[in-house]
């Protein structure tokens, strides 16, 4: 059987285009707040060290498997899994991996577009000077006014999805490839510029100590579990995006070296973002680091507005957030678009428009979860909470677990070897051992921890 079919969608122009695309998929809103906050809360440098080990032992092996499955078939995740199942003579149930990945990506995009819309709104507010010299109460009011206005949220949700549609509809090389080669250098440049400005105008020493002071007393089993979960989720594993991008990866490129490069870049971005953000936060008296939207949309605007040059920093920061969200979101739309083109023979522009509209409709539920329907809950969940829980706590871990088990135990070894031709035998068996015995156990623990945490707090 031909283990290296041709792609009907095209191939990335180079190895670095794939690296930038996969890094763009991995680098998102979470990199800009979750990694630095969790690292600072669980032992600083000691946690970072554990996180990097988890990246190597869990994230990289599973990501390599996902890229392998995509490149072996040169098709969308659904058809890539069909190809692998048929070629390996295994049970058809394994095809569900592709379906779960694509549905996860669309569900995530439906609420991700709404959150990204917040960043777009703040970018325009910053450009108009509306966030300058805010007090803490003023910042809370600005954010409350935004999320409490459904029409305003729908406007920005629509604008963000239009940006994604514009890129994906243009194709792999002219759309995704071209956008990534523009967006990612801009993202890296913005990070470097903001890092330099933060060093000059912020409290870099306190930020460094918050992230990298080795506090081994803070390293508990809970910290290890947090590091495992962060290592899994930060690389966009299990949502079909990496499998779809892997389908466009040049055949001569090394999967191992390429995925390792993506993991390093993703981690470097998270660390730089943390140093930059907390240099600014710690330079402003009365502001404590906090997780989630509170840091990005309340604490930071106050910090920016009360420091010299803060308006420029604020403008650059929210531009950076929009770029990071955009580069991630296009990878969530692409897998389903590719499947519609392959199976339903729909043109790429029509498939992109159709799916963007479905995602937009679904996203209205998230919009209303923050205002009109915020008090409507089922088992303690708003519509947004339910989607977030379903994807992050159930679908993605189960998908990652299944990918590891299938590629590690089920897929024919000659098919695996054909994609890993550059790996020496000892490294191939090391990867397979991690994929078979370390990654599945770790991902299962992440899954159980997520379920426990959610329902123990309800």
Architecture overview:
The protein is mainly α. Helices cover 76% and strands 0% of the residues. The chain has one domain: Orthogonal Bundle (Hydantoin permease). It has helices at residues 15-26, 34-41, 45-73, 77-88, 96-127, 136-147, 150-169, 172-201, 204-212, 221-233, 241-246, 255-282, 293-305, 310-344, 348-369, 383-410, 413-419, 425-456. α9 (204-212) packs across α12.
Could you outline the blueprint of secondary structure elements for this entry?
Elements: H1 15-26, H2 34-41, H3 45-73, H4 77-88, H5 96-127, H6 136-147, H7 150-169, H8 172-201, H9 204-212, H10 221-233, H11 241-246, H12 255-282, H13 293-305, H14 310-344, H15 348-369, H16 383-410, H17 413-419, H18 425-456
Helix pairs in contact: 1-8, 1-12, 1-14, 3-4, 3-10, 3-12, 3-16, 3-18, 4-5, 5-7, 5-14, 5-15, 5-16, 6-13, 7-8, 7-14, 7-15, 8-12, 8-14, 9-12, 10-18, 13-14, 14-15, 16-18
Terminal Cα separation, in Å? 51 Å
Number of strands: 0
Low-confidence segments, given as residue ranges, are: none
Average of per-residue pLDDT values: 90
Number of domains: 1
Helix content: over 70%
């Amino acid at each position: 059987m031909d283990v290296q079919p041709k792609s009907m969608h095209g191939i990335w122009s180079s190895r670095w285009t794939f690296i930038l695309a996969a890094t763009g998929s991995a680098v998102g809103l979470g990199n800009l707040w979750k990694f630095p906050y969790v690292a600072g809360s669980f032992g600083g440098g000691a946690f970072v060290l554990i996180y990097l080990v988890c990246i190597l032992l869990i994230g990289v092996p599973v990501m390599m498997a996902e890229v392998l499955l995509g490149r072996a078939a040169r098709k969308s995740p659904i058809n890539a899994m069909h190809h692998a199942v048929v070629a390996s003579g295994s049970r058809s149930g394994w095809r569900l991996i592709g379906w779960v990945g694509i549905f996860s990506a669309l569900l995530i995009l439906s609420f991700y577009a709404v959150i990204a819309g917040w960043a777009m709104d703040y970018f325009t507010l910053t450009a108009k000077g509306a966030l300058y010299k805010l007090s803490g109460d003023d910042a809370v009011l600005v954010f409350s006014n935004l999320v409490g206005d459904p029409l305003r949220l729908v406007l920005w949700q629509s604008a963000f999805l239009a940006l994604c549609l514009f890129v994906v509809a243009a194709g792999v090389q002219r759309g995704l490839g071209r956008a990534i080669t523009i967006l990612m250098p801009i993202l890296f440049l913005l990070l470097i510029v903001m890092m330099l400005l933060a060093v000059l105008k912020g409290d870099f020493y306190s930020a460094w100590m918050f992230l990298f002071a080795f506090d081994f007393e803070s390293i508990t089993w809970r910290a290890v579990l947090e590091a495992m979960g962060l290592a899994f989720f930060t690389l966009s594993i299990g949502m079909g995006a990496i499998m779809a991008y892997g389908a466009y990866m040049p055949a001569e490129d090394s999967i191992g070296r390429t995925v390792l490069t993506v993991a390093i870049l993703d981690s470097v971005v998270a660390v730089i973002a943390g140093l930059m953000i907390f240099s600014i936060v710690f330079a402003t008296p009365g502001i404590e680091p906090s997780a989630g939207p509170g840091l990005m949309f309340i604490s930071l605007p106050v910090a920016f507005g009360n420091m010299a040059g803060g308006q420029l920093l604020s403008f650059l920061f929210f531009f950076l957030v929009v770029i990071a969200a955009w580069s991630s979101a296009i990878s969530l739309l692409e897998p389903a678009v590719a499947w519609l083109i392959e199976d339903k023979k729909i043109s790429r522009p029509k498939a992109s428009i159709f799916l963007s509209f479905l995602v937009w409709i679904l996203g209205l539920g998230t919009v209303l979860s923050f205002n009109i329907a915020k008090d409507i809950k089922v088992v303690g969940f708003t519509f947004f909470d339910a989607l977030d829980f379903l994807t992050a706590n159930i679908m993605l871990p189960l998908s990652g677990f299944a990918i590891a088990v299938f590629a590690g135990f089920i897929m024919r070894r000659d098919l695996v070897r054909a994609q890993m031709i550059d790996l020496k035998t000892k490294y191939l068996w090391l990867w397979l051992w991690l994929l078979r015995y370390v990654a599945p156990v770790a991902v299962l623990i992440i899954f159980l921890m997520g379920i426990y945490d959610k329902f123990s707090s309800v």
